[in-house]
Design goal:
This protein has 378 residues and is α+β, with helices and mostly antiparallel strands. The protein has 2 domains: 100 residues, no CATH class; 231 residues, PPM-type phosphatase domain (Phosphatase 2c, domain 1, 4-Layer Sandwich). The protein contains 11 helices and 10 strands. The protein has a 5-stranded antiparallel β-sheet with strand order 1-10-9-6-7, covered by helices on one side. The protein has a 5-stranded antiparallel β-sheet with strand order 2-3-4-5-8, with helices on one face. Helix 4 packs parallel to helix 6.
Length: 378
Amino acid sequence: MTGAADTPTARMRKALHRARVGVRKAGVDYFRGDGSDWIALAALLLAVPAIAAATVAEPAWCAPSALVLPIVAGGLLLRPASLLALYAAAATALIVESAILGPYADGVDRVTPGTILVVAAVGFFGLLIAQFRSRVGVPWRRGGTMLFDLRERIRVQSKLPQLPRGWHREMALRPAGGQSFSGDFVVAARTNGGRTLEVVLTDVSGKGMDAASRALLLSGAFGGLLGSLPPHAFLPAANGYLLRQDWDEGFATSIHLVLDLDSGDYELLSAGHLPALQLSAGTGRWEEMAAEGPLLGVYDGAQFDPIKGTLRPGDVLMLFTDGLVETAERDLTEGMDRLTGEADRYVACGFHGAAWHLIEAVAKDVNDDRALLLICRD
């Protein structure tokens, strides 16, 4: 029995249990607002009488309103309950300062009602910040790090794989309002021993921060599905995943490219997405490649019919989201004509560096998420 309990599997289970307990003790309790913040509270409580003493000793250099400094720090570091103790100490310090300093020579109080109002207003906003942190469960010291990490994860997940010689690919994504998070995302992988490129461009309902959480969840799920399923099974599986989420605003559009890197043959499968555009090097014209399929997350059992095409040397395939070509002042046809007109300028340079510049040219100030993907055969 002793030997069976000391197997590698048993040791791994014990290690995982210890890790979970350590995480609960080290982080989760704090995120829920139950962690100890006594060190920060003690430091700020000591800072209050220090500031009050400096104000009494040198009122010309340290004004009574300097008490807002520990109050601001408390709003970022303390729990709401601890913050109230800090506020009580600050109020006591104001009373002591007023009693010791007294009025100026002209009879005006040194601690004016305006000073009290400023300190009270800063305290009110500090309490709002503390309550927000407690509700969200993100400490100020690591909140920015977490958001930065989420942004980097989205960027890494949207990174396109390297292509063999003779192919060029690039992508540009710009969120609405200059934000760091977007409802548009790309997942890509080389499958079939590296001979096939699969790319999925998705536009989640909503825009910017409103759609960012759903886009992050879907990009992770779609990245796991891509390459794990046959190409024709991807969109049905993605549709089923969205339906299981049961979101109030849970639909998305998506376009799935399956490209044979040896022959240039490809298939496009669409879930309510805009058509792709292909530039034929032989004619110099852009052609719409429109596959049929319903939106993701609308109804179960949806079918997605592919269309086929071929990228010959010099051809370009362009995938994009509606924020790039459709606005309130411009219909879809006009937007696509403008996009292809601007894209013609980059034929001579092989479309190197074109994706970002095309967004700048046709949809720079659009208040919507914009994504553009270019696949070129040299």
